[in-house]
Amino acid sequence: MGFRDDFLWGGATAANQFEGGYDEGGKGLSCADMLTNGTGSSPRQITRTLEKGMYYPNHVASDFYHHYKEDIALMAEMGFQVFRMSIAWTRIYPTGMETEPNEEGLKFYDDVFDELKAHGIEPLVTISHYELPFYLTEHYNGWSSRELIDLYVKFCGTIFRRYKDKVKYWLTFNEINCGTLALGNYMSLGILNEGTRSFLEQKDIPQLRYQGMHHQFVASAMAVKLGHEINPDFRIGCMIALMPTYPLTCHPEDMLKFQKQWQDINYYCGDVMVRGEYPHYAKRLWAEQGVSLEITDEDRKILKEGTVDFYSLSYYQTNCVSHSDDQSMTGGNLLAGVKNPYLKASDWGWQIDPDGLRYTLNDLYGRYRIPLMIVENGLGAYDRVEEDGSIHDDYRIAYLKAHIRAMKEAVDDGVDLMGYTPWGCIDIVSASTGEMKKRYGFIYVDSDDFGNGSFKRSKKDSFRWYRKVIRSNGEELD
Hints:
The protein has 478 residues and is of the alpha/beta class. It has a single domain (8-471), classed as Glycosidases (TIM Barrel, Alpha-Beta Barrel), CATH 3.20.20.80. It contains 14 helices and 14 strands. The strands form 4 sheets. It has an 8-stranded parallel β-barrel with strand order 1-2-3-4-5-7-11-12, surrounded by 5 helices. A two-stranded parallel sheet has the order 6-8. Helix 13 (394-413) links the parallel strand 11 and strand 12. The longest helix has 25 residues, at 206-230. The protein starts with 7 loop residues before the first strand and ends in a 7-residue tail after the last helix.
């Protein structure tokens, strides 16, 4: 059967990891701008002011701000039909509090969208992708405050009206279920609790996290309603970080732990945004976390009226769960887990499981029965530049090939899959560590972990391979 004729092939980035120009064009400081660099053994630090002697990778990132025409031309050469990007909130409202938007920031995205249109590429815009205005963290402790709902909807109204004839596809929040985990405090919700400055280790207050996610759910539903009023042709989706697990054994406690993790992490947010209500197990989850949510009758009405048009997801790897603590552990996107003895892993310890993608797509489509889109998938790896400038990334091709085959199997199973945008289609800085050496792209950016380099763009072997995949609508993978 294969992919449908209007299947959307492309790639994905986020403004805070790709754009740079952090202090140009009237842009304000975001939460991402306050993160120093880090390594696997030394986490990124959150600073309340920009400190001398510290390096902030997101300030320059891959410098799309000055290279967007060149980058879009390269995307077009690969045959992109869609480009997932985000709009930096602080480029439009520098603190989030302004009554009037920053025209220079609006004009920048006008130029980007016009360039995409000139090359026949459809933008897919994430409205909020881990870059809350830092002012809103300082003054409201991020999404823990209900005040942010109206500020976000104001931001949405501005960009919906400005780009109503240039953008059709929107995502309200990136990986919104990151808030179900402790690391979501600052990354996803802009919540900065007292204690360590470590990005990954700051003090966790579940009450603030879950209340913050509720505020995001309401804001998302209001944005969906507003967007459809401004342009009924808008397609507005949610975005969930899928963190699939398997029970390590057939021990009944492993099965119960597996079920609970799927419910608490993978289904919780999707149920609210697709079905318009909290799942049946939410009350027990809140009780276990010591959470008492403030949910008004008006909130419930809004959630029901503002459900999304499609469901998008990130998928990188799977892990296992076990009732026993005496197990080997492995890494993953946002969440570590028990090592699966049947899977190989990436340079960063993420287990490679294309069959898990087929399983996941079938599971989600069976649960929600709305179109799905994979908006993040890919292999973070060390890339070597040869003396002649070539970059042979057969490992990346092998990873993507296997996952596209799994997607095709899911489509043949009956899943309504609308598109695929591999993550970091051009090399970007890592969200978790700020490193540049963890590369995902089809296009190499000459920059190191400290922003040194020419920022010259180079095509990897995967560039030419992906161009062939797109031209054949996923039929030619070898």
